[in-house]
Amino acid sequence: MDKILRIDVGAQGGPKATVEPVGDYAGMGGRGMTTMVVYKEVPADCHPLGPENKLVISPGLMSGSAASSSGRLSVGCKSPLTGTIKESNAGGTAAQALGRLGYAAVILEGERQGDDMYKVFIDDQGVKIEKANELKMLPNYDLIDKLKPVYGEKVSVISIGTAGEMRFSNSSIAVTDPEFRPTRHCGRGGVGAVMGSKGIKCIVVDASNTKMRQPVNPEGFKEANRKFVEGLKQHAVTGQGLPTYGTNVLTNVLNEAGGYPTYNFREGRYKHHQNLSGELQAENMKNREGGQPTHGCHRGCAIQCSGIYTDKDGNYMTKQPEYETVWSHGGNCGIDDLDVVAKLDYLDDNYGLDTIEMGVTIGVAMEAGVIEFGDGEGAINLVHEVGKGTPLGRILGAGTATTARCYGLEHAPVVKGQAMPAYDPRSVKGIGVTYATSTMGADHTAGYAVATNILKVGGDVDPLKVEGQAELSRNLQVATAALDATGYCLFIAFAILDQPETFNAMVDSINQMYGLSMTGDDVVALGQKILKMEQEFNKKAGFGPEHDRLPRYFSREPLTPHNVVFDVPAEELDKVYNF
Amino acid sequence: MTYTADFPEPYDKTLDNLPMVLMRHDAPERFSLLLQGGFLMPVPEPCTLREFLCELVGVCGVYTEKTIQTIFLDGLAIDDLDTAMIKPGARLALSAAMPGLAGATMRRGGYYRKMREGISQKVLDGAEATAKEAFRLQVRLYNAVGRDLAGLFLHLGILVPTTDFKKFLASQPQKFFDHLHAVELDGVPLPHTQDAVDSWPLPEGYLGLRVADVA
Ligand code: SF4
Fold this sequence. Notes:
By secondary structure, chain A is of the alpha+beta class. In chain A, 40% of the residues lie in helices and 14% in strands.
């Protein structure tokens, strides 16, 4: 991965591609790359949909190699939703394809001329860009159906649906999975709108004439990767829990903890939670024709947390909805039907919407009385309104914060304009600290539980002396930023958290791939560097400590059943970035 | 890991003298959706969580330490089995280790437990006097724990609302009934095919359910 593809969408006669050496960005991948390019090349005070913003697409450092579970694709820009820097990542097959073709990044830049839409085709022969107005306003699944006869099913597609084309602040970028379905999404922060603002409908990547990226030390790499996979397979979470139940295994447990936000974050438990559980979801996939409870979002994932979800008659509905999706459209909206949630998930993917933002927005709309809590049909109609861009749909498509503002509500569960995910910060305060202080707006993946105990981020922490919330959150955010640069999926976190030998095998895989001798300290340094750039960008974009806060009502209104409020003091939150 | 120890003798063979359904079924893990919904268990007297698991249920040692990684008692995350007290009115949930930061946070004695300050069980409330009387404990078994321990808990016997039991049976596919070899209600055999379920004269309220292997 030694080259960067720049597409100037404002060039005379239509978008123009230039390939250049990776240069100053050498050694960067995934979030490291997207953050560094945005930090260096995008003016922090620009409008996210203006010509100065750039959309950076980057495979992780290990993507395209034989390293297991390393096919994550990062997308970065200044976010239309939050106004901060943004990195959003997804699985699917595109990161591997771009990695194999040698691209460390694809950068969409410049000022779009006119309102034509274009498609980009990348293969081992080069780059072709064509006008594609026949694809205009196609939802993602329909787009894929149109591309299939032209390019076959072996290519990877990175695309936007109608939401991205209409430049909604809630709009995702889709990536196709191994079945050539647009099911994997860089969901958060409205990145689809930035792609839409550049007039690019889709990027088709064909790596069929390429081979897997070769490690500098093939034997050492093989051995390290073997140990890494062994570690993933033997751990209870990555070897059994995730493959069997997927992430939605969390529903019952969060509900039990009283940390399952229900009815737009009004209550901490949902009485019909078992109708939404991962256990039931897995049974449905096992018992229904065509269902598949264990499935990888790209080839070469040893965990396979995903699945294929079918209806009672065995017809494809969507990929296995994730915990956050089942919660946002389910318990948060008082909807307790997994099939309705699956339909909503499909529609989100089709129109190109972030499922967390969309579900939380519907919850706010329910509180505003647009439809009743529990109205599944109503929720489906609202997503259609967004996908079609009706006047109401345009308000909802602008995200949770805007919707709450339009309806005069205080209850907008957002930080820096981005909707909170599926964990109530009053019950799980450490996650609240992460929501408040993440450079990305409310984000659960910003501290997914990486091996900070092994990395010793911020020094040698005595495991018996539990550190403060701020320290733990900081360490997690640093470690996560580093992991997001590698292309490894965050779901490996548990295995590397518990098993030092698995963590070492992962670092060793990177070393053998690149001929390096990185240690845990270097991983920490990389994470810190990324976070510092992000924080500095945000500062220049006008964000200070006063934005690193949860909405006040989380400190004022107790959450049932434990009647807890978020009470981590501001001074504690301000300590997160002391490094 | 799977649970391999022998099943102990049930503490209360009569299951509080409720009407009792006995099923001969060779795939008890297929009941796990019923177990995630919650059931009651007779308990002779208040005890610690370890005493309950180890002495009453028969889940001890390696399985408890390795697999039951996430425990809630009355919605509070439990770190110490020896100080958590099972008392009348208690609600217990057992789960395997969970993914994500939330999972790591909830985990028993986990590195990130500080992050759930406020919903962890802190006080040694076993110290307060509680009458030594029998009671019914509310239990929920989730995910791998439900699957692994279904045979054991169903062997001991559980108390479930009839409505929940009927709803569970109605949601089961034919495959569930392929593993069902006999059914009795208070010793009287019932037809055990899927289409006969509606004809079972199940009493309203609660019933006792015990599942035994075919042997
Ligand atoms: S664990 Fe899941 S999300 Fe991660 S790479 Fe594997 S299938 Fe994709």
